[in-house]
Design brief:
Helices cover 24% and strands 28% of the residues. The chain is of the alpha+beta class and 101 residues long. 24% of the residues are buried.
Length: 101
């Protein structure tokens, strides 16, 4: 899977707005790392980004493309994407504090 890596960090696309998530609403891992989509989102080419998503990932629900943003995660760091009412956040594995019964 191709990824954009700059200064030891990997570009990850998430939804930074209310309404609907991106990865949490069905975008595959390939989509959240897609170099072409990263470039379109970073350059705010939202119409082209929407066309790209519709063509490349036809089953992905992308309601408000202007709410997508690129977050930079340290290469090799484990994370997952969580969502509340469409607003996605990155949660890092090493920052989770587990409770033991």
């Amino acid at each position: 899977m191709e990824k954009v890596i700059k200064n030891g960090k990997v570009a990850v696309i998430i939804s930074n707005d209310w309404g609907s998530g991106f990865h949490t609403y069905g975008a595959p891992l390939e989509a959240i790392f897609n170099p072409q989509l990263v470039e379109l989102i970073e350059n705010k080419n939202y119409n082209e980004a929407m066309e790209f998503i519709e063509k490349t990932y036809p089953n992905v629900y992308a309601y408000d493309i202007t709410g997508l943003c690129v977050e930079w995660v340290e290469e090799g760091r484990e994370f997952y994407i969580t969502e509340y009412d469409g607003l996605e956040s990155i949660v890092y594995k090493d920052e989770i504090k587990w409770i033991t019964a």
